[in-house]
Here is the input.
Amino acid sequence: MTLDVLVVGEALIDLYCLDAGVPRRMDEAGTLARFLGGAPANFTVGCARLGLQTALVTRVGQDPMGRYLLRLLRDEGVDTERVRSAVGAKTGMSLVSVHGGERSFDFYGAPSADTQLDPSDIGERIDARALHFGSNTLVVDPGLATTKRAIAMAKRDGVTVSCDLNVRRYRWSSEAVMREQLDFATRAADWLKVSDDEIAFVSKEKDYDAVAKDLLSRGPSLVALTLGKDGARLYTKEEQRVLPTLAERIVDTTGAGDAFWAGCVAVFLRAQAINGATLEAALRRGSENAAAVIAQVGAVTGALKSSPAGALRP
Here is the structure.
């Protein structure tokens, strides 16, 4: 069976400090709780909940946390055939501090298992309608070689390439190397998502419309800009759509962008063409999903599901 989306990238444990269920900073008193994390894994689960056939290419440690992640992914209906064990490396763990809904991260386990991706993990073809990646696997080899091989195969076979940059500046050895690989990512993607705090890394423009025009000129047919409290925008060369945020309750913003993009991609993969109507539908579906996620603790806890009739439900 051909997949809807094949995702390449990290799956991690997100560890929170909770006080009576409310997320706190890691240096405060509370109880530790573990959740699925890693932007590509979050996106994969988000797509699966919306009815897409999904698979994840990643590596986890031969440890209890790796087995826990595998169980979570399988319980969500994600194909884990391409999730391999990394010998001698621990499953990555992100300690999430939350203050006023906003979050910061401390990563443990480096170099973690997810950095041990190998080109052989991809297989001989991209058996999916879309390939999705982020920038974290572009930081160093062998993840860099693995991701670039997957993209080259997708281009060869006419598979749509989706990218959510998800830039973590501290992971890069230098800004020059980071900008070089981000430029590659923006040119490789057919569908590209960029957040407001990533714009300065990929464009000299500041006006949102000018940023989108710049990015579209490099090759993508679709550009999404996620702008936090200012909502989100979708652009093609012919049309654009803008929607204010739908968030009513902000508990934890972790995974908001992943949920937004999963909602958009689910709509686009079901549409016959991307036009004004599908831009509007995708923007609303993505925004609804993001709003549901940030109302609860954890990157996928609140991610919406599709009923057989296509209606959304918690």
Remarks:
- The chain has one domain: 3-9+40-83+113-305.
- Helices lie at 39-49, 64-75, 143-157, 175-188, 199-202, 208-216, 256-270, 276-294.
